[in-house]
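Practice problem. Given the sequence and the SMILES for N-acetyl-L-glutamyl 5-phosphate, write out the predicted structure.
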Amino acid sequence: MEQALRVCIYGATGYTGIELLRILAHHHYVRIVSAVSRTYAGKHISDLLPYFSNSYLSKVPLSEEPQEDFDLAFLCLPHETSLELTPTLLEKGKSVIDLSGAYRISRGELYPEFYGFEHTHKELLNFAVYGLPEIFRNSIKGARLVANPGCYPTVALLSLYPFLREGVDFDSIIVDAISGVSGAGRKTTQHFHYPEMEQNIMAYSVQKHRHTPEMEDVIKRLSRRDIKVRFTPKVVPASRGMLSTVYIPTQEKRIRDLFYETYKEEKFVKVVQEPPMTKHVIGTNMCLIYPYYDERTDTAVVISAIDNLGKGASSQAVQNMNIMMGIDESAGIENLPLFP
Ligand SMILES: NC(=O)C1=CN([C@@H]2O[C@H](COP(=O)(O)OP(=O)(O)OC[C@H]3O[C@@H](n4cnc5c(N)ncnc54)[C@H](OP(=O)(O)O)[C@@H]3O)[C@@H](O)[C@H]2O)C=CC1
Ligand SMILES: CC(=O)N[C@@H](CCC(=O)OP(=O)(O)O)C(=O)O
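Answer key:
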């Protein structure tokens, strides 16, 4: 790439926006030219996040509207805000990576039930490419609008993909997954405040969560079948990280081979020898996967870990940007975790 890609981050002071700033600050092919924030407009990034004071980012002002022209926007915004902003940006010729759920589900009629609003731009739902690179890499190349997946669907679909690719037959699966609190965003609800969250573990949205139709939609696209997902999200008092267990009722027992074969060329998805832990992925773009077959119950069990703000959001968004723009796919996202 001869000239740096000019990037604007909308929602730059939320958790996914801040993680993008961290990753892109050292990305060789990118220059962040605008950082949009309503609340902190008029301040500089290093006023809020002093560790950026040695970076060129310290000079980038936070503003209510972009201050300079740009090529690509990351939308780290609430779903409804992204929904309305995306068509305007596309009309202006920008490329868009939307971290919200506004363009993830191909069936627009599901939005009122699962998101609580009518989808006002259904014409874009088939134009948007679902940004899970290990599954949809070829469609992401050259895409103008990428819908970055939800954190739970990222880890669950990577845990399931080898079965779908092989055409293994089953009617329903269970996804049982645990998230760190940052999954809820920076402005959070009462239950996630420190006095209630500290020393606490809870399930939430157990009967209806917007990631259930997202998973089912992608599964249907891959298998052409209506496979049902029983999903239970839980939250634990950790800042970030996500651990998922997927249960697949099947007679297919060669599952480690299936996983090695599917992911052997992948840099960011690794099949591991022991059940993974979140401390091995925090701050990285990695998904570590441990599949095994439980003979007693005829069930394939897949335990996987990601960082909800990494592979579950911002570093996956950068992976998508790299692919869209024809940059080396791992540029800027090869960092290792802080351990312990
Ligand atoms: N946190 C996570 O792990 C993941 C989040 N996502 C999705 O990414 C998007 C961003 O998430 P996250 O960074 O966690 O969220 P945050 O709540 O941390 O940040 C969202 C930012 O959006 C800005 N904003 C602009 N318009 C509005 C508005 N009308 N109402 C509220 N905020 C607004 C706010 O900044 P300001 O007020 O300064 O404008 C705010 O800082 C969401 O759609 C989320 O669902 C996806 C995967 C994982
Ligand atoms: C702990 C927690 O609250 N997590 C969020 C998931 C965040 C995410 O990936 O999702 P979206 O982009 O689809 O909002 C939740 O369950 O709503």
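Check your answer against the key. The mean pLDDT is 97.
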